[in-house]
UniProtKB/TrEMBL annotation:
CDD domains, sorted: NPD_like
SUPFAM superfamilies: Inosine monophosphate dehydrogenase (IMPDH) (SSF51412)
Signal sequence bounds: none
Molecular function as annotated in GO: nitronate monooxygenase activity
Record keywords, A-Z: Detoxification, Flavoprotein, FMN, Monooxygenase, Oxidoreductase
Cofactors named for this entry: FMN
Name of protein: Propionate 3-nitronate monooxygenase
Catalytic activity from the UniProt record: 3 propionate 3-nitronate + 3 O2 + H2O = 3 3-oxopropanoate + 2 nitrate + nitrite + H2O2 + 3 H(+)
Organism of derivation: Raineyella antarctica
InterPro entries: Aldolase_TIM, NMO
Pfam families, sorted: NMO
UniProt GO BP: response to toxic substance
Length: 342
């Protein structure tokens, strides 16, 4: 693509790995004048290829694919194994026969990059780090725009130096994982509006704002401040187009959940979730090891989701979760950007 796209509606549906992002959501966003992302994280490369094909078959030309940049920090194996041990009684209660030990996993990085070079898409975004130079060159070589998620001004500068064409500035109110570049980084705390202002003063590429945005006023505020768009995840979780699992869907509007909380308990990386019994019990014990902790807790989270047990499942949600309602993606876009109706 030549140049960052000018969207009719400056609303982006965030990539949401683990089910919520679907080809249907991506196509609905494009039809509404915004932009959607497929989430390649956790997906086998063949499934990603199918999703890209489905978006194209639906006639959607403008969309993005989001990749997890592999973590290079060594894991603290004794701490991970101790955490696994602490989780075994819960696993047994959920009917599981043990829990896995950690194993090497780079989320199929090379195969996913190869796919996106062979079958180019308009935009590729990255979280958890920056792509290596060769990957930047290969993807630019097939005319793909590259976007990095940043959680600090230093990251923003480094991303632009590495050749990123745009940035997603993610504030600490974001649902799901924080896109920090090192698992052991402290949880970011600078409010989105402050981070956005700092980054806009430093870089010349388009900057999209994300994290805790939930209303038309929120979107208006970040766009007025200079953002090229607002990227929202939580706001789209209850759309029929999203693949949010039923247990998670029910929890999002259940009055029993209080404020959201940032925790490493589910994956080893900082992530914001509705607060539940799992976090209350295990947050203090969880080591900063990704994807090791994600692997260890995976069977518990899957069993809890299947059993309708929202207390032992990650329930990613941003600080604006109280505004989330069941509505189609087009309706959510129209609420967030009232001019979209025109
Ligand atoms: C369920 C869920 C899954 C997410 N998965 C990803 C992902 O795969 N890649 C990514 O870059 N960000 C991911 N995020 C973070 C979003 O990109 C975005 O920063 C966040 O949703 C913005 O905050 P909000 O949820 O308050 O709108 C996820 C967020 C949620 C809620």
């Amino acid at each position: 693509m030549s140049g960052f796209p000018t969207l009719r509606v400056p609303i982006l549906a965030a990539p949401m790995a683990g089910g919520p992002s679907t080809p249907a959501l991506v196509s609905a966003m494009a039809e509404a004048g915004g932009l959607g992302f497929l989430a390649a994280g956790y997906l086998p490369v063949a499934a990603l290829a199918e999703q890209v094909a489905a978006v194209r078959t639906a006639g959607t030309d403008l969309f993005g694919v989001n990749l997890f940049v592999p973590d290079t920090e060594p894991i603290d194996l004794p701490a991970v194994l101790a955490y696994r041990e602490a989780l075994l009684p819960l696993a047994a209660e959920l009917g599981l026969d043990g829990l896995p030990e950690p194993y090497p996993d780079d989320d199929g990085w090379a195969a996913k990059v190869d796919l996106l070079v062979d079958q180019p898409v308009p935009i590729v975004s990255f979280t958890f780090g920056l792509p290596d130079r060769t990957t930047v060159e290969r993807l630019h070589g097939v005319d793909t725009l590259l976007v990095a998620t940043v959680t600090s001004t230093a990251d923003a500068r480094a991303a632009v130096e590495a050749g990123m064409d745009g940035l997603v500035v993610q504030g600490p109110g974001a649902g799901g994982h924080q896109g920090t570049w090192h698992t052991s980084d402290p949880a970011p705390s600078l409010p989105l509006d402050d981070l956005l202002a700092q980054v806009l003063a430093e870089v010349d590429v388009p900057v999209v704002a994300a994290g805790g945005l939930a209303t038309a006023d929120d979107v208006h505020r970040v766009v007025s401040a200079g953002a090229a768009g607002a990227q929202l995840g939580t706001a789209f979780l209850l759309t029929p187009e999203a693949g949010t699992n039923p247990t998670y869907r029910a929890a999002l509007t259940h009055p029993g959940f209080g404020p959201t909380r940032m925790t490493r308990a589910f994956s080893g990386r900082w992530a914001r979730s509705l607060d539940n019994a799992f976090i209350a019990t295990y947050d203090a014990l969880a080591p900063a090891s990704y994807p090791a902790i994600n692997q260890v807790t995976g069977p518990i989270r899957r069993a809890a989701a299947a059993a309708g047990d929202a207390q032992h499942l990650h329930l990613w949600a941003g600080t604006g979760v109280e505004h989330v309602r069941e509505a189609s993606a087009a309706e959510v876009v129209a609420q967030l950007w009232p001019d979209a109706r025109e």
